[in-house]
UniProtKB/TrEMBL annotation:
Entry GO CC: plasma membrane
Protein name: ABC transporter permease
DNA damage recorded as keyword: no
Organism: Paracoccus aurantiacus
Keyword Membrane included in the entry's annotation: yes
Taxonomic placement: Bacteria, Pseudomonadati, Pseudomonadota, Alphaproteobacteria, Rhodobacterales
Length: 268
């Protein structure tokens, strides 16, 4: 009885969670402009309008630039922070790492407002660059969490063996450590890319006049005729997110297999 109740709860939870996402492609290929059943017919017209929309293309280009830049910056900074936190002891380590991980628990609107006030106070003009800074701040804790697991799983004897063979600290890090944690680096990169691509609040506050995909979608929800195009765009974004998370999970599991650690679960 308990097992049946738990199974029913799990099924109901999954339906509640994923049914809205499953409706996206259904209405994206529906020829009707009203989001309602019954469906009128099959069409790919909305995808054509999506591709032909110059403002949407600009928003998509901006989002790609922001996501690529912030994911690279967050991953690079995450490598240094994860390496320092897992390998060395230094004064104030818990407090410093706590401050770095603080964006995980802070409401994004508070982070966005704080960044907006600081940037305007020092005279920085709002642009794609300011969004990149904000997204790097948000993505960094996630990158550190992934990379810390990768660095913690390393066998320290491999690093010590490299030193015994005459390698310097830099060459040992470049030739031995980085290849071993590369699956974690790729996972952190892809996870940060996905988070940045989908992020709305910081982009809304810091983008200025430059549109991003989330802010563009928000602006178009006021126009009923634009909803089918938004459904098409949402379908593309969902597919992209699933592909990126699948790749990240593949590299995570590959890293677990390479280091011989027990797999305690991951993104998927």
């Amino acid at each position: 009885m308990k097992g049946g109740g738990l199974r029913a709860y799990a099924i109901a939870y999954l339906i509640f969670l994923y049914a809205p996402i499953l409706l996206l492609p259904i209405f994206a290929f529906n020829s009707g402009t009203i989001i309602a059943f019954p469906l009128k017919g099959f069409t790919t017209e909305w995808f054509g309008q999506m591709v032909a929309n110059a403002t949407l293309r600009r928003a998509f280009t901006n989002s790609l630039i922001i996501a690529v830049s912030s994911s690279i910056m967050a991953t690079c900074l995450g490598i240094f922070a994860a390496r320092a936190s897992t390998r060395f002891n230094f004064p104030g380590k818990p407090g410093i790492m706590g401050l770095i991980m603080l964006p995980l628990v802070l409401p994004e609107i508070i982070v966005a407002m704080s960044l907006l006030v600081v940037l305007l106070a020092i005279g920085v003009q709002l642009s794609i660059f300011t969004v990149i800074l904000g997204h790097t701040l948000i993505c960094l804790p996630y990158a550190i969490a992934i990379l810390s697991t990768a660095f913690n799983s390393l066998d320290k004897s491999l690093e010590e063996a490299a030193y015994d063979l005459g390698e310097t600290k830099w060459s040992a890090f470049r030739l031995v450590i980085l290849p071993l944690v590369m699956p974690g680096i790729v996972s952190a990169l892809l996870m940060s890319f996905t988070i940045s691509l989908d992020e709305f609040i910081i982009a809304f506050f810091l983008a200025g006049n430059e549109p991003t995909l989330p802010t563009y979608i928000f602006s178009q929800l006021r126009f009923p005729k634009a909803i089918p195009v938004i459904m098409s765009l949402g379908t593309v974004l969902v597919v992209m997110s699933i592909v990126l998370l699948t790749i990240a999970e593949y590299f995570r599991r590959r890293g677990v297999a390479r280091t011989g650690q027990k797999d305690h679960g991951g993104f998927l």
